[in-house]
Amino acid sequence: MRANCSNSSACPANSSEEELPVGLQVPGNLELIFSVMSAVMMGLLMFSLGCSVELQKLWSHIRRPWGIAVGLLCQFGLMPLTAYLLATSFSLKPLQAIAVLIMGCCPGGNISNIFTFWVDGDMDLSISMTACSTVAALGMMPLCLYLYTLSWNLEETLTLPYQNIGISLVCLTIPVAFGVYVNYRFPKQSKIILKIGATLGAVILLVVAVAGVVLAKESWNPDITLLTISFIFPLIGHVMGFLLAFLTHQSWQRCRTISLETGAQNIQMCFTMLQLSFSAKQLVQMLSFPLSYGLFQMLSGILIIVGFYTYMNQSKQTPKVLITTQSRQIIVFAKVIF
Questions:
Q1: What's the confidence (pLDDT) of residue 280?
Q2: Reported pTM
Q3: Closest CA to 108 of 146, 77, 147, 76
């Protein structure tokens, strides 16, 4: 990376970079995998989740956007700051530090919408936050990256994926709009579509995650420090999002929603920005972080869901989402785990 860190004490690493193995190459299938993930998940999945959105509730969030404001503060206030503190505290190498910071500056990902559904969260708020954070990323991503890299003396210009942001926004709003229409005209059928879509979405997430790991096995960096950060980063996001929502007197349902939205980042956008900004030789040291972050954020989301159903089962409460036999099986699974 063409980053002059030797003259800056604030840079996360002042040592020279290690030589890269000659035979290590960045797999060309990564872009295809995450493009397929974007097309499939952000189309069919967002359409099905849009079937849970009610116009009246959606308008109430837009008219009084307190929940959205708290979510944006978490997304572009707490997450970039956390990324910067983690990069400096662990004294990461320049390339690794930039990868962590870019991940922290990305908007929320669609995986949070699935998690929110399964923990009986506020779907109207979840989808609103995802859309608003994607729009806000057009200005907040370059602003956050500029502010947090001032002391790092970067010589290489970071290329922002504006086209990717636009595509993400279109793939989010249009399917959701169709879902809202179906929910308005055919409320009974929309509940069936919602259940099927949420279940298939979870399956697709697992399949894409496993396929991505297998195809990108040559890009994995066995750096324990980087793996540790990718493990604790989403957990910190979930905790901070919940605490800030709680301190601003949001409902428990909104607290769960904001927590999941904060810890779940847009992995594909991070991948795209890294690929646009750095050479293939540099990417070898960087791509392992978004890969591991994606896996750990999925794992943390699954654990939150299992914990939620375990708590609801022990407290003799039944979430609204438990209206099918298939959904009730999650409680049985939670019993086995715990």
A1: 79
A2: 0.78
A3: 76
11: tokens are 């840079």
User: Which two structure tokens, joined as six digits, stand for 264?
Assistant: 């779940």
Measured distance CA(228)–CA(232) in Å, rounded: 6
The helix/strand/coil state of 106 is coil
Residue labelled with tokens 């929603």 = 257
- pLDDT lower than 50: segments of the chain: 1-10, 12-27, 323-338
279-331 per-position pLDDT tens digit:
878 887 788 888 889 888 888 988 999 999 888 888 766 666 554 444 444 44
The answer to whether residues 256 and 242 touch, using CB atoms and an 8 Å cutoff, is yes
> Residue 3 pairs with which residues in a beta bridge?
154
Instruction: Please enumerate in sequence order all residues whose Cβ is within 8 A of that of 187, keeping only pairs 6 or more positions apart, or say none.
Output: none
Residue 20 and residue 88: Cα distance in Å, rounded?
A: 23
8 A C-beta contact, residue 263 and residue 241 = yes
Phi first, then psi, for residue 15 (nearest 5°) are: -85, 160
User: Tokens 């849009």 belong to which residue?
Assistant: 50
